[in-house]
Amino acid sequence: MMRFDGQNPDEIALRLAHIAWEAGRVLRGMESALIDKRIKDDGTPTTDADLAAEQLIIRRLNEAWDGVPVVAEETSSTAQTADYFFLVDPLDGTGDFIHGTGEYSVNIALIRGDRPMAAVVAAPAMGSIWIAGETARVSPLPDGQGTDFAWREAKVRPAPEKDLVALVSRRHGDVATEACLSVLSIGTRRMTSSALKFCLIASGEADIYVRCGPTMEWDTAAGDHILTCAGGSVVGPGGAPLTYGHEDRGYLNGPFAAIGDTALAPRLDLPVSAAVA
After folding, report:
1. Does 73 count as an annotated binding residue?
2. Which of 75, 128, 167, 186 has the most crowded Cβ, counting Cβ within 10 A?
3. What is the tens place of the pLDDT at every residue in 9-56?
4. Residue 162 vs residues 166, 188, 247: alpha-carbon distances, Å
5. Measured distance CA(21)–CA(121) in Å, rounded
6. According to the annotation, is 92 in a ligand binding site?
């Protein structure tokens, strides 16, 4: 098995960027096709596009890092982890892909122990990509056959005294989330889907995203790392960082808040989920 000790996390992130860009091209090519939607056991939709992107990503990860486990939403969601492993969501925001909003992403994170060390979130239809190893960067996606990125640093903004911008899920509102947001001075609620919420906060375009409903580790790991490297944080109840590789609970996350300004964390009161306690 190829080990990552001594490898530069930023260089790993760049390699992941090329894989996500390639997967994004597959998804873009399937956007206008007749969508064969199926409902999985957990009630969420999947399509042939999810499967095609996941197969490509797993193949490319195996070519680059043979033997490193890949936990991926569609075909290897019960894979076992090791000291290093990948978390992959090949199409985060399948509902948005089906409905043509463009707000979907490709998420890949390399986990070392229980925290990410390199990650990418690509938004193929929106033309943007974010990566992080030790630093967080953002670039437009290359046009056509080119693979030249134009990276610049992604950085969170200080939280304003009032009129915070909160990102809320288009399809996943809940009472507990609203209760958490009610203690803050929210001026704008902006509907955004998928892991793009982490990235918009990382780029200084918003301040907070709270999610109290269920999510999976492959939904959050890449965005978590990008936001953290951009100066923000993703915290669970009590303010602790999220951890990854919880095979015992089926890779389920508990409630969390993604925040740009870490000074907001003590003001939050996230509920404790019995499922992950």
Report:
1. yes
2. 167
3. 999 999 999 999 999 999 998 876 655 655 555 556 668 888 999 999
4. 12, 10, 40
5. 9
6. yes
pTM of the model: 0.91
pLDDT < 70 stretches in the chain: 1-6, 32-46, 144-146, 170-174, 273-277
pLDDT single digits (tens) 213-229: 889 999 999 999 999 99
Tokens standing for residue 75: 């075909």
247 marked as binding residue: no
Residue 248 annotated as part of some ligand binding site? no
Is 91 among the annotated ligand-binding positions?
yes
The residue type at 121:
V
- Is 46 within any annotated ligand binding site? no
